[in-house]
Design a protein that fits this description.
It is a single chain. By secondary structure, this protein is α/β, with parallel strands linked by helices. It folds into two domains: 202 residues, Rossmann fold, CATH 3.40.50; 110 residues, Rossmann fold (3-Layer(aba) Sandwich). Helix content is 41%, strand content 19%. Strands 3-4-12-9-10-11 form a six-stranded mixed beta sheet, with helices on both faces. Strands 7-6-5-8 form a four-stranded parallel beta sheet, with helices on both faces. The protein has a two-stranded antiparallel ribbon with strand order 1-2. Strand 5, helix 3 and strand 6 form a beta-alpha-beta unit. The structure holds pyridoxal-5'-phosphate. Pyridoxal-5'-phosphate binds next to helix 3, strand 9 and helix 7.
Length: 328
């Protein structure tokens, strides 16, 4: 299948349930004050609550299939949602999946729980690298692909989080989907779209999508792992690669980065964050995880407190999934 929204057809496999719902959660406003909060339910894309990752994989895995690969190699933290999504999607499509997972010391974790358990269940082959080796992850995956080539296999390597131009493209189509459903579902101007930002695929895709669909209000990236500048640099790199491949000018959306709620960095949390995450579940019936959407919800609540939004605004919180994540 090809995607006709690009200047050139891009192979895509349909993996996600789309469009994902856009739903109103009035009890958040009743309790927190501030704007009307809508949630874009990308936690419902399928593949074991794999969330936004499935949108990115539709393009990567189509690329793998089109180029005759039998194996997909990718990497992440050992509780990576992206790796779990890749393991499950690979199983669906009949592709072997090899995961290069990061642990503090490069050893296998004591307990195979949460995402790691699902990776194994889906049949992915796992190797571990340490935090010290993490900067060399691309070379490590390339070496794995070269070794497999010697054994007669062809591999498709997906970078961390599938956060490159293909992943960005998948997320930008998600933004377009939201723009198509918002007038009918929300029926009011959307004052901001808030999301969890980490490896850059989601933020670059939303920024690209906002620019290309004429959404001029803020797209807010709630950083959960690193200072905003790291994400800004990644988004810039991904956009440059996107412009080279898909054409057009560099996007200029109103992309705003908030890094006041890192809580010590990736996978780290505080009591206040956990309390807010539990509160958000009790006000919505939705599940959030400490690493990603729970931390972003914590940021959102605090930004509401600080008066970032008007009380008659309608804003969207993009739920990017991650329900099986565990603290790394
Ligand atoms: C549940 C969830 N939300 C958000 C993100 C962040 O997306 P990105 O890495 O594209 O910034 C991730 C990345 O792993 C994720 O698993």
């Amino acid at each position: 299948m090809t995607n006709t929204l690009t200047t050139q057809p891009l192979p895509q496999v349909e993996l996600a349930f789309k469009p994902t719902p856009l739903q109103y959660f009035p009890r958040l406003r009743e309790s927190w004050g501030g704007p009307h909060i809508w949630v874009k339910r990308d936690d419902l894309t399928g593949f074991g609550l794999s969330g936004n990752k499935v949108r990115k994989l539709e393009f990567h895995l189509a690329g793998a299939i089109e180029s005759g690969c039998d194996t997909v190699i990718t990497c992440g933290a050992y509780q990576s949602n992206h790796c779990r999504a890749t393991a499950l999607a690979g199983a669906r499509l009949g592709l072997d999946v090899r995961l290069v997972l990061r642990t503090p010391d490069g050893n296998e974790p004591d307990a195979s729980v949460a995402n790691l358990r699902i990776d194994t269940l889906a049949g992915a082959e796992i190797s571990y690298i340490s935090e010290a080796q993490w900067p060399d992850r691309d070379e490590i995956m390339a070496a794995d692909a070269a070794e497999l080539a010697r054994q007669g296999h062809k591999s498709w390597v997906i970078p961390q989080g599938a956060s490159d131009k293909l992943g960005m493209w998948g997320m930008s189509l998600g933004f377009r989907e939201f723009m198509e459903q918002a007038p009918e579902v929300i029926g009011a101007d959307v004052a901001a779209v808030c999301h969890t930002g980490s490896s850059g695929g989601t933020t670059s895709g939303f920024g690209w999508g906002a620019d290309r669909t004429g959404f001029s209000n803020p797209v807010v990236a709630l950083c959960i792992s690193e200072p905003a500048q790291n994400l800004i640099d990644r988004v810039d790199r991904i956009w440059r690669a996107g412009v080279e491949t898909f054409g057009g000018e560099m996007p200029q959306p109103d992309l705003q980065y908030v890094d006041d709620y890192l809580c010590g960095g990736y996978g780290k949390s505080t009591d206040e964050l956990v309390e807010t995450m539990v509160e958000a579940t009790r006000l919505t019936g939705l599940l959030f995880d400490v690493t990603y959407t729970g931390k972003a919800m914590y940021g959102l609540k605090n930004e509401i407190r600080k008066g970032r939004f008007d009380s008659d605004d309608h804003i969207v919180f993009w739920h990017t999934g991650g329900g099986f994540g565990a603290v790394n």
